[in-house]
Design a protein that fits this description.
Elements (H helix, E strand, L loop, with lengths): L2 H10 L3 H24 L8 H22 L1 H9 L2 H4 L2 H32 L5 H6 L3 H11 L2 H18 L1 H5 L8 H21 L11 H6 L3 H10 L5 H4 L5 H11 L4 E3 L9 E3 L9 E7 L18 H9 L1 E7 L5 H10 L21 H7 L3 E6 L8 H6 L4 E3 L12 E2 L2 E2 L1 H17 L4 E6 L22 H19 L8 E7 L17 E7 L7 E3 L3 E2 L3 H8 L4 E3 L16 E4 L4 E5 L2 E6 L3 E7 L6 E4 L3 H19 L12
Parallel strand pairs: 3-9, 3-10, 4-12, 4-13, 5-6, 5-9
Antiparallel strand pairs: 1-2, 2-14, 4-11, 7-8, 10-11, 15-16, 16-17, 17-18, 18-19
């Protein structure tokens, strides 16, 4: 029997529409996969074996996604009485259903394209996270793409496909399968998603050393479902662990730099940081810049001249050449800067429940008599910023503090950075007037898709791409510094300019180290001499380094360390996705994965590639100790400014 004859026979069966939905999903998924493969051709490791895996494993995930997608139509075809099955009303319902299915599949394919263009991965934790903030996400899409034209085109294409499939859609309506027989078939079909849930592993696609090959082997719909159901990853369940006493002992040896154990015993990370001499109560302004990769600055080889203000500040201040971000999202940067803790798997602590009264940089400054502020250009409910910072030692100010007349420009993410800095200057002036030293963490928003900003500020028109947004943010920072120089508090202020994360995290390998490389500048004329700091620095070290520069003595629970006092043997950094946890030390990279796997690599810090090398057990144990203890302290209420349990 020919394929065509077999297909016609299947379509004539009562559950023919189920077969048709499966074919449609698999076909559109294949077209999507091939399109993404062509788009990423230069980054894929091409081989017959890799291509075979992309197609075969991809088809397996397509069928897995289809087993869930057909559940509604299976139930409908099972329960609909035969006497109604051939009715005109049922045919209309089938057409409506298939219009919805085809439209959804094509819409998903286009969404996957845009998601891949932004992140170079299939749907993951980020996509699920976006569901919570539909206003910002939908607004970002509308401002970034011609969404109305896309939707009209989608409707037309969907209608055309349904019209071409009209005979296949209604072919099965002549079938009069009895209730008993169709019950057996329905139950078998409904068992398939159960078998998929328990039998198909999300890890099957991770078969290649090339990350693009792995992602292309997946299915966006299946990956979205997996991410939705697994948005929290318990460290002890999914990752390699050590006996807690062993992990604590290793960590104690790593964290005893210029510190003494509290009450004579090192417990968890609780220790006293001792700095001799007088504390220097300078004001501190920490500017967290959206998506500022190191590669944008001329100091790191950029020739586009899109950061002239930062380039100038880098020459006048102390430029950190070897700093690495904790993660790939703003909330990870905020977590690292405020909590100074390695990134725990799953959601950032900023967005988790029970995250009040934690040990933060803001709480330390507040204990020293400072006003601690978090100032954000958007609405602070996004990513739970208001809730987190207001309950952890900071006073929060967001765009709602600005009058409409004070806003030169805004998009869905927030006001233009120049307006954010105007707001910041106003708040800092208040603190100075009240004779209070201040610590302010300012979070910018303009360097983000849709890359729009006020016209006439720079020589790149708005809405033309990332380079323009970078240059506009650079312009706004330069303007802020110039205006701050006119303030009476400027001469006693330390400015720290640092990225929250890089503009892109895509690479050929699991954790491409070059996609975590970010710049930082310590700027304070008259206090900090121009220079470059070359030691390997983690984003979680920034808080303790600022406190060390101010010569503060304090009781600490931070995992970060003062890099100005760091020995060469103590250099290390943490990089991560929401599930892969990296530890860089001694020019090696240890990656902990949620299948209780630990692998050691030799990374290339220039292009991000990495080659697996024999396991370095000492380094692996250090990585485990840091990540395991970070999760342990948070989950057991031991990372509070005043712990729920005594440390």
């Amino acid at each position: 029997m020919s394929i065509k004859a077999k297909t016609n026979k299947l379509l004539h069966q009562r559950f023919g529409p189920v077969f048709l939905v499966t074919v449609l999903l698999s076909a559109i998924s294949l077209i999507t996969r091939l399109s993404l493969l062509i788009y990423s051709a230069s980054s894929v490791d091409w081989s017959i074996f890799n291509l075979f895996k992309i197609l075969v494993i991809g088809l397996l995930y397509d069928l897995a996604a289809a087993s869930f997608a057909v559940i509604p139509i299976v139930i409908y075809l099972w329960l609909l009485p035969s006497k109604w099955y051939a009715s005109k009303f049922n045919k209309i319902l089938l057409f409506i259903y298939f219009f919805f299915v085809v439209f959804t599949l094509i819409f998903n394919a286009i969404s996957e394209w845009f998601f891949w263009e932004e992140f170079s991965v299939r749907y993951n934790f980020i996509a699920v996270d976006y569901l919570v903030y539909t206003t910002e996400v939908i607004g970002n899409i509308r401002q970034s793409y011609p969404i109305n034209s896309i939707m009209v085109a989608l409707v037309i294409i969907t209608a055309l496909i349904v019209y071409l499939l009209r005979k296949s859609i209604t072919t099965s309506t002549t079938n009069k399968t009895g209730f008993g027989k169709r019950t057996i078939i329905a139950l078998i079909l409904l068992c398939l998603p159960v078998l998929t849930y328990f039998g198909v592993s999300h890890r099957w696609k991770y078969h290649s050393k090339n990350q693009y090959v792995n992602e292309l082997s997946g299915n966006g719909i299946y990956d979205f479902g997996f991410a939705f159901w697994n948005n929290q990853l318990d460290y002890n369940t999914f990752y390699k662990i050590l006996p807690i006493k062993n992990a604590e002992s290793i960590l104690s040896n790593l964290l005893q730099q210029d510190s003494t154990a509290k009450n004579g015993t090192f417990k968890n990370t609780f220790r006293a940081i001792n700095n001799a001499g007088i504390q220097n109560k300078m004001n501190v302004v920490l500017i967290s810049v959206e998506s500022l990769s190191a590669e944008f600055l001329s100091a790191f080889g950029n020739t586009q001249h899109i950061t002239p203000q930062l380039d100038s500040l880098a020459k006048e201040g102390l430029l950190f050449n070897n700093l690495y971000a904790s993660g790939t999202r703003t909330v990870r940067g905020l977590e690292a800067l405020s909590l100074c803790i390695p990134p725990t798997p799953g959601q950032s602590i900023v967005k988790r429940p029970d995250n009040k009264n934690l040990f933060t940089l803001g709480s330390i400054f507040r204990s020293k008599g400072y006003n601690s502020r978090f100032i954000y250009g958007g609405y602070g409910y996004f990513d739970n910023m208001n809730e987190f910072f207001s309950n952890n030692g900071y006073q929060v100010t967001d765009r709602s503090a600005l009058q409409d007349s004070e806003i030169h420009y805004s998009n869905i993410w927030g006001v233009a950075d120049e307006d954010l800095f105007t707001l910041s200057l106003r708040e800092l002036d208040k603190d100075y007037k009240d004779k209070k030293p201040f610590f302010a963490q300012i979070m910018t928003v303009s360097n983000h898709r849709p890359y729009t900003y006020p016209e006439g500020r720079i020589d790149i028109p708005s809405h033309t791409g990332r380079e323009g947004a970078v240059k506009y943010t650079d312009y706004a920072i330069g303007k802020f510094i110039r205006e701050a120089k006119q303030k009476p508090w400027f001469s006693n202020t330390l400015f720290v300019i640092v990225a929250d994360h890089c503009a892109s995290s895509a690479g050929k390998v699991q954790l491409p180290v070059d996609k975590y490389h970010i710049p930082m500048i310590f700027y304070s004329p008259g206090h900090i001499a121009p220079g470059k700091f070359e030691k390997l620095t983690a984003q979680i070290d920034i808080g303790p380094t600022i406190l060390g520069y101010l010569n503060f003595s304090y009781d600490s629970k931070f995992f970060g360390q003062d890099v100005f006092k760091m020995k060469d043997s103590e250099e290390r950094a943490f990089i991560s996705t929401y599930q892969s946890l990296g530890y860089i030390k001694n020019n090696k990279l240890v990656i902990l994965d949620p299948n209780k796997k630990a692998t050691t690599y030799k990374p290339d810090f220039t292009n991000g590639n990495a080659v697996a090398i024999p396991a370095d057990q000492k380094l692996i144990n250090e990585a485990i100790s840091n990540y395991q203890m970070a999760s342990y302290l948070y989950q057991n209420g031991l990372y509070g400014f005043e712990s729920k349990k005594k440390p």
